[in-house]
């Protein structure tokens, strides 16, 4: 509650967090903030409502700043990967969810470590490499910002992997591995730590393939030839990312 109050007033963090209410379906999409409500109001009614509160980039709040950076070396040791070397923009987010509320089927572009602090939550994760779930064109659209929503597979209601999160444990969710979550009978508090890869040839190849298809070509699949993927990433992927950066700069002006 105190954190929500602080980040709502701090100009560096105000507006970054999100909250919504209601009872979404697995194949629905995320909703909008209810009018007239505040982040603090959503937390005040978290036990009785159907609320989903996301305290985004909570590590930018001075109280939480050191927590993420203390955890990164521990994650690196467990994963066997130097997180700070391979990834960038480490982000910590707190999720607070009302009893029984569902988080719809979706996927994220960041590597995600989700740790459970309070309550119980079921997590259903799907194999992002399964072409029956995500086609090459789906991934190309996603990595170029043209696929806001993915469709829930009715034939596989509980995913390829199922996990029960309780206080003291957590789950690793790879980038673009779809998932949905079902909260238990108590308020759930979870902490998510997300990381973006500094360079990813496969992502760059997907971005390149999206534009190659638009001019009538039939590009090869990413992940088959690492050299070709790196070339596509160098020629197209970084050009695409630089274009996004320039567009953001224009919007700020």
User: Structural class of the helix and strand makeup?
Assistant: alpha+beta
Radius of gyration computed on alpha carbons: 19 Å
Strand line-up of the largest beta sheet: 1-2-3-10-5-8
How large a portion of the residues is in β-strands, by DSSP E?
15-25%
Largest sheet: 6 strands, antiparallel
Q: Give the fraction of residues assigned to helices.
A: 25-40%
Quaternary organisation of the protein chains: single chain
Order of SSEs, N→C?
HEHEHHEEEEHEEEEHH
- Overall residue-averaged pLDDT value: 89
User: What is the total tally of β strands?
Assistant: 10
Q: List segments where confidence is low: pLDDT < 50 over at least 5 consecutive residues.
A: 245-253
Tell me, briefly, the overall form: globular
Spatial separation of the terminal alpha carbons? 34 Å
In DSSP terms (H or I, runs of 4 or more residues), the helix count works out at: 7
Write a brief caption for the model:
This protein has 253 residues and is α+β, with helices and mostly antiparallel strands. It is 32% helix and 25% strand.
Descriptive account of the structure:
With 253 residues, this protein is α+β, with helices and mostly antiparallel strands. It is built from seven helices and ten strands. The longest helix is centred in the C-terminal third of the chain and has 27 residues, at 226-252. The protein starts with a helix and ends with a helix. Mean pLDDT is 89; it is low at 245-253.
